[in-house]
Amino acid sequence: MFRKRRFIHVSCMSFLTALLLLTGCSSKEDGKTEGLALIKRTNPEPMDIIYGEDQENEKGVISKVKEMVSSEDAIYDVIVVKNGKKIIVAYKVKHLQRFHMKKIDKNVTKKLEDKYPKYTFIISSDYKIFLESVRLDELLKEKDVPEKKAKKKFKEIVELHKELI
Protein backbone atom coordinates (compact mmCIF):
# COMPACT_ATOMS: atom_id res chain seq x y z
CA MET A 1 0.00 0.00 0.00
CA PHE A 2 2.74 2.41 1.01
CA ARG A 3 4.75 1.66 -2.17
CA LYS A 4 1.71 2.18 -4.38
CA ARG A 5 1.04 5.58 -2.81
CA ARG A 6 4.66 6.61 -3.15
CA PHE A 7 4.69 5.56 -6.81
CA ILE A 8 1.55 7.62 -7.55
CA HIS A 9 3.00 10.62 -5.69
CA VAL A 10 6.31 10.49 -7.58
CA SER A 11 4.51 10.00 -10.90
CA CYS A 12 2.24 13.00 -10.30
CA MET A 13 5.15 15.20 -9.24
CA SER A 14 7.16 14.17 -12.32
CA PHE A 15 4.21 14.89 -14.59
CA LEU A 16 3.62 18.33 -13.03
CA THR A 17 7.31 19.20 -13.24
CA ALA A 18 7.45 18.23 -16.92
CA LEU A 19 4.27 20.20 -17.62
CA LEU A 20 5.66 23.26 -15.83
CA LEU A 21 8.93 23.09 -17.79
CA LEU A 22 7.16 22.76 -21.12
CA THR A 23 4.81 25.68 -20.54
CA GLY A 24 7.52 27.88 -19.06
CA CYS A 25 9.88 27.41 -22.00
CA SER A 26 7.36 28.14 -24.75
CA SER A 27 8.24 31.07 -26.99
CA LYS A 28 6.04 34.10 -27.35
CA GLU A 29 6.34 35.32 -30.91
CA ASP A 30 4.88 38.74 -31.60
CA GLY A 31 5.33 38.55 -35.37
CA LYS A 32 7.74 41.44 -35.76
CA THR A 33 10.99 40.97 -37.66
CA GLU A 34 12.64 43.86 -35.88
CA GLY A 35 13.32 41.92 -32.68
CA LEU A 36 15.26 39.20 -34.48
CA ALA A 37 16.68 41.36 -37.26
CA LEU A 38 20.19 41.15 -35.88
CA ILE A 39 20.17 37.46 -35.09
CA LYS A 40 18.63 35.75 -38.10
CA ARG A 41 18.11 36.49 -41.77
CA THR A 42 15.21 38.89 -42.36
CA ASN A 43 15.54 39.24 -46.14
CA PRO A 44 13.35 42.37 -46.53
CA GLU A 45 12.21 43.56 -49.94
CA PRO A 46 14.05 46.61 -51.36
CA MET A 47 11.93 49.74 -50.88
CA ASP A 48 11.71 53.21 -52.36
CA ILE A 49 10.49 55.83 -49.90
CA ILE A 50 8.33 57.60 -52.47
CA TYR A 51 7.21 54.84 -54.84
CA GLY A 52 7.26 51.68 -52.74
CA GLU A 53 8.89 48.69 -54.41
CA ASP A 54 10.46 49.85 -57.73
CA GLN A 55 9.63 52.80 -59.96
CA GLU A 56 8.20 52.06 -63.41
CA ASN A 57 10.84 54.05 -65.32
CA GLU A 58 13.69 52.68 -63.20
CA LYS A 59 12.49 49.09 -63.17
CA GLY A 60 14.50 46.98 -60.81
CA VAL A 61 17.36 49.33 -59.82
CA ILE A 62 17.03 48.70 -56.11
CA SER A 63 16.30 45.01 -56.69
CA LYS A 64 19.45 44.72 -58.80
CA VAL A 65 21.45 46.53 -56.12
CA LYS A 66 20.21 44.02 -53.54
CA GLU A 67 21.07 41.07 -55.79
CA MET A 68 24.53 42.45 -56.48
CA VAL A 69 25.33 42.92 -52.79
CA SER A 70 23.77 39.57 -51.83
CA SER A 71 26.00 37.80 -54.35
CA GLU A 72 29.03 38.43 -52.13
CA ASP A 73 29.90 35.20 -50.31
CA ALA A 74 30.66 36.90 -46.99
CA ILE A 75 27.29 38.69 -46.84
CA TYR A 76 24.14 36.91 -45.64
CA ASP A 77 21.44 39.57 -45.25
CA VAL A 78 20.89 42.83 -47.14
CA ILE A 79 18.39 45.68 -46.89
CA VAL A 80 18.13 48.40 -49.55
CA VAL A 81 16.14 51.62 -49.13
CA LYS A 82 16.05 54.34 -51.80
CA ASN A 83 15.18 58.02 -51.56
CA GLY A 84 15.63 59.89 -54.83
CA LYS A 85 19.26 59.46 -55.89
CA LYS A 86 20.40 58.23 -52.47
CA ILE A 87 20.37 54.53 -51.67
CA ILE A 88 21.04 53.02 -48.25
CA VAL A 89 22.58 49.56 -48.45
CA ALA A 90 22.95 47.87 -45.07
CA TYR A 91 24.13 44.30 -44.75
CA LYS A 92 25.24 41.67 -42.27
CA VAL A 93 28.52 39.81 -42.65
CA LYS A 94 29.06 36.17 -41.76
CA HIS A 95 30.77 35.79 -38.40
CA LEU A 96 34.17 34.48 -39.51
CA GLN A 97 34.31 36.96 -42.40
CA ARG A 98 34.20 39.95 -40.03
CA PHE A 99 38.02 40.02 -40.10
CA HIS A 100 37.79 41.12 -43.74
CA MET A 101 35.27 43.96 -43.22
CA LYS A 102 37.32 46.68 -44.92
CA LYS A 103 37.91 44.50 -47.98
CA ILE A 104 34.21 43.60 -48.20
CA ASP A 105 33.16 47.27 -47.83
CA LYS A 106 35.62 48.30 -50.51
CA ASN A 107 34.44 45.58 -52.94
CA VAL A 108 30.74 46.37 -52.45
CA THR A 109 31.30 50.13 -52.78
CA LYS A 110 33.38 49.74 -55.94
CA LYS A 111 30.87 47.40 -57.60
CA LEU A 112 27.90 49.63 -56.88
CA GLU A 113 29.56 52.92 -57.81
CA ASP A 114 30.89 51.45 -61.07
CA LYS A 115 27.52 49.98 -62.08
CA TYR A 116 25.34 52.92 -60.93
CA PRO A 117 27.40 56.14 -61.09
CA LYS A 118 24.40 58.50 -60.96
CA TYR A 119 23.37 57.31 -57.47
CA THR A 120 24.88 58.12 -54.09
CA PHE A 121 25.31 55.05 -51.91
CA ILE A 122 25.34 54.92 -48.13
CA ILE A 123 26.89 51.51 -47.54
CA SER A 124 27.22 50.05 -44.06
CA SER A 125 27.72 46.78 -42.26
CA ASP A 126 26.91 48.38 -38.92
CA TYR A 127 24.14 46.61 -36.99
CA LYS A 128 22.57 49.84 -35.79
CA ILE A 129 22.15 51.09 -39.36
CA PHE A 130 20.80 47.71 -40.41
CA LEU A 131 18.26 47.75 -37.58
CA GLU A 132 17.16 51.33 -38.32
CA SER A 133 16.79 50.42 -42.00
CA VAL A 134 14.59 47.45 -41.05
CA ARG A 135 12.46 49.80 -38.94
CA LEU A 136 12.18 52.20 -41.89
CA ASP A 137 11.24 49.29 -44.16
CA GLU A 138 8.48 48.22 -41.75
CA LEU A 139 7.28 51.83 -41.57
CA LEU A 140 7.08 51.98 -45.37
CA LYS A 141 5.04 48.79 -45.51
CA GLU A 142 2.32 50.39 -43.39
CA LYS A 143 -0.56 52.01 -45.24
CA ASP A 144 -0.82 55.81 -45.45
CA VAL A 145 2.64 56.64 -44.12
CA PRO A 146 3.36 60.34 -44.67
CA GLU A 147 6.22 60.87 -47.12
CA LYS A 148 7.65 63.54 -44.81
CA LYS A 149 7.92 61.08 -41.92
CA ALA A 150 9.65 58.47 -44.10
CA LYS A 151 12.10 61.03 -45.47
CA LYS A 152 12.88 62.21 -41.94
CA LYS A 153 13.67 58.63 -40.85
CA PHE A 154 15.84 58.18 -43.96
CA LYS A 155 17.72 61.37 -43.11
CA GLU A 156 18.25 60.15 -39.52
CA ILE A 157 19.89 56.97 -40.85
CA VAL A 158 22.17 59.03 -43.12
CA GLU A 159 23.13 61.22 -40.15
CA LEU A 160 23.82 58.13 -38.04
CA HIS A 161 26.08 56.78 -40.78
CA LYS A 162 28.01 60.07 -40.88
CA GLU A 163 28.54 59.88 -37.10
CA LEU A 164 30.01 56.40 -37.40
CA ILE A 165 32.54 57.32 -40.06
User: N-to-C terminal Cα separation, in Å?
Assistant: 77 Å
* Mean pLDDT over the residues: 81
Order of helical and strand elements: HEHEEHEHH
Strand content: 5-15%
Which structural category fits the helices and strands?
A: alpha/beta
What general outline do the C-alpha atoms trace?
elongated
Please tally the helical runs, counting DSSP H or I stretches of 4 or more residues: 5
Q: Give the uncertain stretches in residue-range form.
A: none
Main sheet summary? 4 strands, mixed
Whole-angstrom Rg: 23 Å
How much helicity do the residues have? Answer: 40-55%
Number of beta strands: 4
Strand ordering within the main sheet? 1-2-3-4
Could you explain the architecture of this structure?
Helix 4 (127-141) packs antiparallel against helix 5 (147-164). The model has no long low-confidence stretch (mean pLDDT 81). The chain is of the alpha/beta class. The chain starts with a helix and ends with a helix. It has five helices and four strands, in the order αβαββαβαα. The chain has helices at residues 2-24, 61-70, 101-115, 127-141, 147-164; strands spanning 47-48, 75-83, 86-93, 120-124. 49% of the residues lie in helices and 15% in strands. A four-stranded mixed sheet has the order 1-2-3-4, with helices on both faces.
Please write out the topology.
Layout: H1 2-24, E1 47-48, H2 61-70, E2 75-83, E3 86-93, H3 101-115, E4 120-124, H4 127-141, H5 147-164
Parallel strand pairs: 1-2, 3-4
Antiparallel strand pairs: 2-3
